[in-house]
Amino acid sequence: MQIQEDSKLSAVERLEVYANAYFYRIRDCLAEDFGALHAGLGAELFHDLVTAYLIAHPPRHPSLRFAGDRLPDFLRAARAAEPFRRRLPWGGDLARLEWAIVDAFDAADAPTLSRERLAQIAPEHWASLRFDFQAAYALLSLDWPVHLCRRAWDGGDPPPAAPLSPEKTPICVWRDGERVRYRTLEALEALGLDLAAGGEPFGVLCEQLATEVGDGEAPALAAALLARWQADGLLRDLTA
Q1: Is 210 exposed, middle or buried (0-12, 13-18, 19+ CB in 10 A)?
Q2: What pLDDT is stored for residue 15 in this prediction?
Q3: 214 to each of 34, 128, 194, 219, 222, how far by Cα in Å?
Q4: Entry pTM
Q5: Sign of the dihedral defined by the CA atoms of residues 69, 169, 141, 185, in that order
Q6: What are the residue ranges of helices labelled H in 127-235?
Q7: How high is the pLDDT of residue 96?
């Protein structure tokens, strides 16, 4: 394709119109994917962030769906992102949460594990059970309670007025039907999920919980966690 000048714009100026339109399209898509981050930084600073990010990481996929896949890591570690970290130290964690929400929304559909299927498992097989998790699931280990920012944005409220304080915050993200959900986890549930999603059998999960709460409480705690994961729809299937 050849860009030709006319009476109003030179060929270079006409090309710049197309280039700027493409940038603004990417920026607007990223503002949708990272809504709470956009609100926290403000429109002007978010524009500058997208500019710096695209210089470092130009799009590598024809679909804009993947344009923001490297933004969380860029914001957390890149030298060019230092001005934005000074403004929003938890911005990288917030971007990780928001990208996990995008991934969960677009993940493939799959049936969920039913209570009836669990009830069919013979007692002698429970220790060897391994669980398959949904593709629309992620466990995040974050250093900031950024769910507060995202929750405010989800509710149409402004970002929290007071700065966040650093706090280890495990968060589970998954899709329930057409809606993506997320919630913070207690340390023991995060431990259990990490083991189960990592392929460890249910018996190992119980043993690890027993080191934390004792042999007497571990079986009931493990059963309660498994019941919640099943009810939430995190589990796709199991093998024994």
Answers
A1: middle
A2: 47
A3: 42, 21, 19, 10, 12
A4: 0.90
A5: negative
A6: 147-154, 187-197, 202-213, 218-232
A7: 98
> What's the one-letter identity of residue 79?
R
Alpha carbons 184 and 142: distance in angstroms, whole number: 10
Backbone angles phi, psi at 132, to 5 degrees: -100, 125
* Residue-wise pLDDT tens digits, 177-205: 889 999 999 999 999 999 999 999 999 99
158: left (phi over 0), alpha (psi -120 to 50) or beta: beta
Question: Could you tell me the two tokens for 179?
Answer: 């809606």
* Residue positions counted in the chain: 240
pLDDT computed for residue 12 by the predictor: 44
Cα 232 from Cα 159, distance rounded (Å): 28
Question: Would you list the DSSP string of 58-99?
Answer: ---SSSGGGTTTTHHHHHHH-GGGHHHHHH-TTHHHHHHHHH
User: Residue for token digits 């999960």?
Assistant: 205
66 contact partners, CB below 8 Å, separation of at least 6: 59, 60
Place of tokens 């402004």: 158
- Please state whether 80 falls in left (phi above 0), alpha (psi between -120 and 50) or beta: alpha
